[in-house]
Give the backbone structure.
Amino acid sequence: MKSFLFFVTALFQCALVAGEKKPNFVFLLVDDLGWGDFGCYGATFYETPHIDKLAKDGMLFTNAYSACTVCSPSRAAILSGRYPARLHLTDWITGHKRPFAKLAVPDWKTKIDHERVLMPEALKEAGYATAFFGKWHLMPIGKPDFKEHYPTAHGFDVNVGGREWGQPKGRGKYFSPFGMPGLDDGRKGDFLTDKLTDAAVGFLEEKKDEPFLLYFSYYTVHGPIMAPSDLVKKYQEKAEGFENRRNENVNPKRAGMIEALDNSVGRILAKLEEMGVAENTVIVLTGDNGGDSDNTTSGLRDFKGFSHEGAVREPLIAKWPRRIQGGTTCDEPVIGMDFYPTFLEMAGLPARKDEHIDGVSILPLLKGQAKQLSRKKLYWHYPHYHRTKPYGAIRDGDWKLIEFFEEGNLELFDLKKDPLEKKNLSEEMPEKAEEMLKELERWRKLVGAQMMTPNPNHDPERGKGKQRKKKKTPK
């Protein structure tokens, strides 16, 4: 099947206008990225001049979503163009264990099936050089065949840093030694974000004469929170006189991590300019789920692992010179599965609707040809225990409904009037809540979502678990 698809793709390429070059792609995915972590999204304590300029030169989205409130499912959704519920990959690998909880977690997957043609595989078939840098976290832990699920088994020619880890676990954590595939340990004191950027810049130099996909999946800003000492000192001094008017995360170490990220983005942008390929390169910057504390979300309710907007609303910036008008903003809801079909259309390649079933191309939004998509509904499915209890959710236009599976409790919000989700309207508007619940149930059947079942080992006392409360900002 893959050889046939390659043949079709080759024919399609031959039909392109003579001399037209396929665009390059730089996809930057930040771990635990909060809605309020960048200056262009309101941050005043953190400093992100390179990212802010990227937004000024491109399009900034105000309603961009991750496909899940935790990392592994949202990452799988980006690569596959499918909802985590359809993939049956619905929690971070390997998830929390709640053996005595009221509901039993389904037998979900801890890897992406090899029969799926992922975004990098589709681009590789079309002649792209593909490279992965950073956090993978899409493979089983401790299994004999785990290397069969490395990025290089899913369409990437190069893997630097990607393995089963969800966060750095080398002896130095974010500092050398790193203990990651394809990445040398460098010198004592070397910082992981900088070293991965060195490798990414090296890849760009090597592949400057052919179309490429650089997929940079940062480990930062996932814990453990640490940064180079000079950056930490800078923000310690800034914190002393900082007037925190917006309840920002005034954490010097996290601020240093964000600045290291910004410096990485700046280096990549500069390299593209130096190589003379910036004009033909698509750059996308987004996150996999919300920040890890409630003061990283610019007031949005809750954060990573919870069921509300602060856990899934993500910064999203896209730049494509001469195609995307600089300094523009898009308010239309988009989600992680949309990148796959969008990149194919940008590259002049045919859609693979049997693969990216749940994604839609957002190219009309990016090019200013449309302000809305025909799709009006987005869905989430989380049959697991985390900081919140298991739930499902739907956004339909400005309306959002959350269903909690244990008791069937509902929360209904009008996001246009109540973006911070302060007023639950489910009792005031029971008909609207019921209408949206039925649609959510219909969607779950359509995608074959795995449902929870009563737990025969349920023990009300032992099953309370350790539901994590909101963190207070470190001083």
User: Anything to note?
Assistant: Residues 252-275 form the longest helix (24 residues). The longest strand covers residues 24-30. The chain has a mean pLDDT of 92.
